[in-house]
Every structure is written in C-alpha cells, then in structure tokens.
Amino acid sequence: MSQLSRPDRHLPTEQPHPGNEILGALLRDAEHAVAAFVPADKQDAILMLLGLDRALLELFAVRGRNMTAYHTAKAKDGLS
C-alpha cells in the first residue's frame, strides 16, 4: 500500500480538546467583554447563558480578546 493511499495519513498528531475545555476557554475570553457591556448584577447569568449559544459566545470571546490585547498594548506604551 503506498503512502498516498493510506487512510490514516491525515490523523492528527495530538488529541483534540474536549468540548468542556473549549467552552471554558471561550467563557474566560468573553469575561472582559461581558464586564464592559453587561451590568454587574447580570454578568453571571449572561455568562451562563452564553454557554448555550456558541455563535454569540464566540463573538463575545473575540471582543474580550481584542479588549485584553488593547489594554495590554496601552499599558506597555505607558498610556492609561
């Protein structure tokens, strides 16, 4: 059997992350965005509900990552 026709040649070398680890990482990334846009008394409820809507969770996670990167760069340059 040639190397090109082997069915296992595309197998990943590392194990994929379980879904709960991915969800946890996205929720951690989304925390900064939720803190910026949601009143403090509703933040826990919103974070719990974000776990049910993957598309909205990913939007908040991206926004949270961008906010974190912005604040880190701002602090690095001495701007506050």
Name the features.
80 residues; 0% strand
Brief overview:
With 80 residues, this protein is mostly helical. It is built from three helices and no strands.
Q: Any idea how many domains?
A: 1
Query: Treating each run of at least 4 consecutive H or I residues as one helix, how many helices?
Result: 3
Distance between the termini: 63 Å
Structural class: mainly alpha
| Overall shape | flat
Helix content, binned percent? 55-70%
Mean pLDDT over the residues: 86
Biggest beta sheet summary:
none
Return the string of H and E elements.
Answer: HHH
Strand content: under 5%
Number of strands: 0
Radius of gyration: 19 Å
Uncertain residue ranges: none
Q: What does this 3D model show about the protein?
A:
- With about 80 residues, this protein is mostly helical.
- It has one domain (about 20-75).
- Helix content is about 60%, strand content about 0%.
- It has three helices and no strands.
- Helix 1 crosses helix 3 (about 55-75).
- The mean pLDDT is about 85.
